[in-house]
Amino acid sequence: MNQLAVAIFWILLGLVTGQALMTCGFIWVLFRWKRHAATEQYRPKAAVVLCLRGTDPFLADCLEALLKQDYPDYDVRVIVDSREDAAWQIAEEVVDRCNVTNVQISPLTRRHDTCSLKCSSVVQAVSQLDESYEVVALLDADTVAHPDWLRELVAPLACERVGVSTGNRWYMPDKRTWGALVRYAWNAAAVVQMYLYRIPWGGSLALKTRVLRESDLLDRWQKAFCEDTMLYRVLRKQEFRVVFVPSLMMVNREACSISNYFRWVRRQLLAARLYHPGWPGVVAHAIATSLTLLVTAALAITALATGRPETLIWAGGGLALYMAGMLLLLIPMEAGVRRIVRARGEPAAWLTAFDAAKLLAAVGATQIIYPIALVSTIFVRTAAWRGVSYRIRAPFDIRLIEYRPYEADSSSKQTESL
Question: Which of 184, 219, 261, 369 would give a disulfide with 179, using CB separation of 3.0 to 4.6 Å?
Fold first, then answer.
C-alpha cells in the first residue's frame, strides 16, 4: 500500500507540473499585454450580431455598451426569438434611449429544425448582410463590452491569414454562491485549454466575411448545435488562424447555483465533444486526473481507518499538493485578468478573505462535479438550452424537438447562456 501511495504522489506531482506549464503560457500572454492608445489602422465596415432569447440580467447594459463603441463604421443586428419575447421590449427601450440609427432589431423569422435557435439567428443575420461588410462580430447577451471592444476585436484580422479573433469569459460574480465559485474554478482551467486548443468563444468573436464566402460555414451552421467551437476545423481547412486577444477577457458578474452550473458545463463540454478535434485529449486528461484523485482519496481513507501513518502521509500529501497547486495557479491568472480589467476602468476586486477560503473547497468540489458532467456528456443524446430541447445524433445531425416561446423559470433568475 505504501508503494502505491508513493507512486500516486509522484503522479499527482506530475499532473500539477503539467498543468502549471500549460497555465504559465497563458499567464505570460496576459501579463505581456500592454494597453495601447487608439490608432486609425484596420477599421473595415463591421456588423455586430446579438442573438436574444429571454432576458439576461445584464441585457440592458450589454445593449447600451454595444451601441457606444469607439468604432467608425459598424452596424448592430439584434435578432430576437420573437416579438413577444421580453428581450424585444428591452432592446427597443435601449435603442430609443441611446438615440442611434445603426441598429436593426428583427424577429427570428426562420427557425431551422436542423440546428439550435442561436445558429438559426446567426444564419439569418449574416445572410442579410451585403458585400460591403468585411467583418462579422458576435456578442453574447451576458457580455458587457467596453468602448474599445470592437476595435480591439477587429485589429488582429488585419493579418491576411487570421480568420477569427476571439476573447474569453472570466467570472467575477457579485454573489459568491457555491455554484458561482465552482463555475469560476472550472472556467479558469477551461480558459487555458481553450487558449491551447484554439477554441473560439462566441461571446466575443470576430470573423472575416471572406471566411464565409470561401467555406461552407453557413451550411454547417444550419446543421449545428453551436456556432463557435466548429470554427477551428473550418479555418484550418481554409488555412486561416484563430487569434486570442488578451485584452478581451470579458467579465461576467452573474451568480449561479450548483444545478445551473452543472447544466451549463454540460453544454460547454457537449460543444467540444461534437466539434473540436481536441476532445479526446480533454477526456483523457479529465479521466486520468479524476481516477488518480479517487484512488488517492480511497488510499488516504483506508490508511486512516487501518492506522497506516506513512501511507496516510503520502496519500494525504498528494491530495494536498494537488489542491494547493490548483489554487495557487489561480492567483497569477486572477492577477493577470484583474490587470486588464482595471485598465478598462472596470472594478476587479470581488473576492473577500472568506470567499478565498471557500474557493479552496470549491476547487475540490469541481474535481467531483466536472468528471460527472464530462462522463454524462459522452452519452448525452438530447440537450436543453433556454427551454428548448434538441435531439443530437451526430455533430451535424441536430433536431429541434419542439419550439415554444421563452419562459423564464419563476423559481430562479439564472439564465442558460452557452
Answer: 261
